Amino acid sequence: MDDSLFFEQHLGEKLNKWSSPRQTTRPLVEIRHTESHDWVRNSFVPWLSECSGIASHDLSELATCISELFNNIDDHTEYDVGSIFAQWYPKEERVIVAIADFGSGIPSTVRRVKKDLDDVDAILAAFEDGFTSQSTPRNRGVGLYFLLQNVVENLGGKLSVCSAHGSISFEKDGDSLIYVPYSGDGLCPGTLIVLEFSTVCIEKTEGDLEDIQW
Description:
- There is one protein chain.
- The chain is α+β, with helices and mostly antiparallel strands and about 210 residues long.
- It has a single domain (about 5-200), classed as Heat Shock Protein 90, CATH 3.30.565.
- Helices cover about 30% and strands about 30% of the residues.
- The protein contains six helices and five strands.
- It has helices at about 5-10, 35-50, 60-75, 105-110, 120-125, 145-155, and strands spanning about 25-30, 80-90, 95-100, 160-175, 175-200.
- A five-stranded antiparallel sheet has the order 1-2-3-5-4.
């Protein structure tokens, strides 16, 4: 965390003066929704492509997933700002991406349309195929289900969510998608989503990268 500049940003100084982001790290940054798609396309994707050796056009679905999370932040929080951090582990060919916001949280958003759910069940509902809390088609994005399908089902990765008093980890066990819920006294203001997967599972294709349309 010190190398990501977390302590410098939030406490005013590093724990170790020699700490600094490595080439395998995208340091923690706060990004507004209006800047997020540009950051994903021109900072995150080229960085992961260089680290992993995977062509940028083969990272387009992952880029869409991350951009959709920033769309959710824009739709469901009053701050219009998300924090993102990414770390590449070359020996394991594995990447972790963490995105957080300080909105009202997934359970509060879900209970607009599905009342009386506890925090864990509300998070589960948010990841159901076709779920939306928006009443107008313009605000209905690809959704968290798309994220779950790409990171867990297609890449065999792990997706962890903490929001309010609920926390869930999604992963695959053989051909089955499983989830492990936790519910306790802790509180996560807003929402934290952590994606973890091996880039070996990303399908490699030939051809030029087409411009990604947001």
